Amino acid sequence: RTSCAKGASTAPTTGSMLHTSVKASEMSKKASETLTPSQTPGRSMYLSNRGNSIRQQQGILQEGFVQYARDQYDDAHNPDGILNVGTSENKLCYDLLHKRLTKPDMLHVDPALLQYSDWRGHLFLREEVAKFLTHYCCSPKPLKADNVVVMNGCGSLLSCIAAVICDPKDAILIPTPFYGAITEDLQLYSDVRLFHVPLDCEAGGKDSRLFNLTVEKLEESLKKAKQEGIIIRAVILINPHNPLAEVYTLKEMIGFLEFAKRYELHVIVDELYMLTVFDESVTFHSVLSADSLPDPQRTHVVWGLSKDFAMAGFRIGTLYTENSHLVEAVAQLGSFHGVSGTTQHQVAQLLRDREWINEEFLPENRCRLKAAHSYVTGELRSMGIPYLHWPATLFVWADLRKYIRESSFERELSLWRCFLRHKVLLSCGQAFSCSTPGWFRFVFANQDHHLKLGQCVTRTLHTLSGLTQLFRYCLS
Ligand SMILES: Cc1ncc(COP(=O)(O)O)c(C=O)c1O
């Protein structure tokens, strides 16, 4: 990796602005407490305390998405609508998927598909997932169908895993920033909390790169949690990372897994973006490729179709774990998170079609992602906006600190709202519990050709370039 890839591509601006790190609370808060107090719905007399707390848990991502749903950009019908650069979806490959998913082999019905299935998923699908992961994760030994659970998305799996390895109010360590919806995945049903491991956005001291995750930081946070009387049961590691897009090496991952083993912590390894790496300079290594895992009974790997196959709407998530007790417990919850038989058939057909995956889908998807990434990062560079340069995932983590007058999450939120008023939906750092205000995530895979993507970025950057003038009106 080049040094550029491990830090911001351009040195972060310092200037005269305040860039002191404002530490977010280490324990996850309700998003509504931190983000949108004025818009939190009031208490409903029809709901229980739990129901009210679930209803009120509306974070910034929802607020933006609601507005977007009402006023979506559409080339022909709503050219002045909101451009969505905030949702992590790959919309570059609809043509390829449509062609494959409408082939005759996809249309299949037999009695078993119409009946209740094993709540872990049909055996034919779990076998296919095991073969798929063995191959694409480069597992040294064949992975087993009995260790696979299939559910309606990785969000459901994270929720179920947390429910069975934690008791209410227990906590799981997670480095920040992180994919924000995990907070709700863990909290809504199971009342499991996240304990943050804050990563610093400045390189310096022992940190050779920005947002550098180290075993020392994990140790430090674990110690802090213990001092506060919080029971930590697990650690969540996302690789490739959302929102940093960073790809951790196998050596780094094994170091984190060894840390977890020392304290008998479970590790949930989220590898949802494992095939979304689009430059030869970076190679992703699944933890399943290791000759041996430090603590196989406490290592649980999740992967799904939402990102790597650009099929978030299919709702497919898979879990691989050697822990049969965990599989049994999670399977008990599977009846709430099942996938229809016909969809399971389609997914199995897709995963076994290696020729389509290797010869058509993956190369073309990577090529389109690379072009889109290069376009957006080129635009960011031309605007002098620093960003983390990792050729992976569907987004770029960019440093807009120079556009907020002071380092506060209120200012960051004002900037986010300012974008929304200018019809650009982004995700801001506080939605990912970033400890320093001013970082934003740009999804670059959200238009199917460059013209639309170009419009999207141009409008975003146009807004940015006008921000100095807008400060007076928007941010005062
Ligand atoms: C890192 C990560 N984990 C889990 C999820 C949830 O994915 P799914 O669509 O499979 O529920 C997402 C979705 O953005 C994600 O980015």
Automatic annotation (TrEMBL):
Report the source organism.
Mola mola (Ocean sunfish)
Q: Which BP terms in the Gene Ontology apply to this protein?
A: amino acid metabolic process
Which family does the UniProt entry place this protein in? Belongs to the class-I pyridoxal-phosphate-dependent aminotransferase family.
Q: Where is this region: Disordered?
A: 1-20, 26-49
- Compositional bias segments (type: Polar residues): 10-20, 33-49
Q: Name one Pfam family in it.
A: Aminotran_1_2
* Gene3D superfamilies assigned to the protein according to its UniProt record, in alphabetical order: Aspartate Aminotransferase, domain 1, Type I PLP-dependent aspartate aminotransferase-like (Major domain)
PANTHER family according to UniProt: 1-AMINOCYCLOPROPANE-1-CARBOXYLATE SYNTHASE-LIKE PROTEIN 1, BIFUNCTIONAL ASPARTATE AMINOTRANSFERASE AND GLUTAMATE/ASPARTATE-PREPHENATE AMINOTRANSFERASE-RELATED
Q: Per UniProt, which keywords does this protein have?
A: Pyridoxal phosphate
Coiled-coil portions: none
In its UniProt entry, what is this protein called? Answer: Aminotransferase class I/classII large domain-containing protein
Drop me one GO molecular function for this one. transaminase activity
* Domain (Aminotransferase class I/classII large): residue spans on this chain: 89-448
